[in-house]
Amino acid sequence: MRQAPATAIAALLAAALLGPASAAEDAPAPPLPPERPEPAGPPPPPPEPQAAGVPVPPERPAEGPPAPAETAPGLAAPTPALAGEGDVPPLPPERPADLDAGQAALPDSPPPTTTEAEEEACRARLKELGAAFEPLPSISEGACGAPRPLRLTGLGGDVAVPSGPTVTCKVAEGLALWSRDVLVAAARAGWSKPLTAIQIGTSYQCRSQNHVAGAKLSEHAFANGVDVAGFVVGKDVTVGVTTQPAGSPEEAFQKAAREGACKSFTTVLGPGSDPSHATHLHLDQRERGKGYRICE
Ligand SMILES: [Zn+2]
Q: Fewer CB within a 10 Å sphere, N or C end of the chain?
């Protein structure tokens, strides 16, 4: 079918150029060449993708190695131009984070400060008062802590402090004076018996005031406050801090104890001050301007 028309065309061309007889037989050969170039077109494209694929792999690995190599030494600052831009971003976020931590701690009430000489003088007075105590390692817990805490186990006159609270020397001295000057006499007045123990609950504790989130740090956070939960008079009388029955010896004792605490502590809170102090006396030595005290 194809040969017939091709032959006819070739014959016409041959006849026009060469002649009617010989052109008709030689014509079949020429048509083939023009057909080969057409299929030859597609083959060239395949070689191109192969050629492009080969150069790409070598370029990528070449770019990869240099990048990590520049980043690592960049920390040592040998590559200020290229690696410097990549290293600067990570550093700023770390710095603000540190500043935030510091700023969050500083605005709060600063921890009480005493010099080494003041601390030694305080401990000497504490010994003279007959207190039993031992120095503890300094406490540092974020914004909380105490540089020279003591473990208090006893006060003068054989008054025990069974829980062994962790306190500053100022708090220990306040308790010793309070016991000697107020509590011993109040116990005698109420029961004709000696005061034998002071029951202390919380002493050092890293927390905000009244456990309220965002509030100023409590003096407990500096070992500069204690919560007194009760007293033991003689061997069998326990007086818990609470709203006492009117006219009872417990009421008289607690009233005397609470009012007398204001002489040796700068903060006294108890039942009636607020709901969080309904069952204990909070006593601390917070430093305020002009010797201001809170005595409630
Ligand atoms: Zn307290």
A: N
- How many domains are contained in the chain? 1
Ligand 1 centroid to residue 204 C-alpha, Å: 9
Boundaries of domain holding 195: 104-295
202 C-alpha to ligand 1 centroid (Å): 7
Residue 172 Cα to ligand 1 middle (Å): 15
Q: What is the pLDDT of residues 33-55, one digit of tens each?
A: 444 444 444 444 444 434 433 34
* Mean confidence (pLDDT) of the chain: 74
What's the gap in Å between 282 CA and the centre of ligand 1?
A: 4
- How far is the centre of ligand 1, averaged over its atoms, from the C-alpha of 117 (Å)? 28
Instruction: Report yes or no on whether pTM surpasses 0.70.
Output: no
For residue 81, being part of any structural domain is answered with no
Entry field: residues in the chain: 296
Determine the distance separating the centroid of ligand 1 and the alpha carbon of 296, expressed in angstroms.
13
174 domain residue, yes or no:
yes
* CB 204 within 8 Å of CB 223: yes
Other beta carbons within 10 Å of 111: 19
Q: For the segment 129-167, what is each residue's pLDDT rounded down to a tens digit?
A: 999 999 999 999 999 999 999 999 999 999 999 999 999
Tell me the CA–centroid distance for residue 127 and ligand 1, in Å.
Answer: 25
Tell me how far the alpha carbon of residue 211 lies from the centroid of ligand 1, in angstroms: 10
DSSP string covering 212-271, please?
A: -TTSPBPGGGGT-EEEEEEEEETTTEEEESS-PPTT-HHHHHHHHHHHHHTTT-SEEE-T
**Has residue 41 been placed in a domain?**
no
Ligand 1 centroid to residue 205 C-alpha, Å? 9
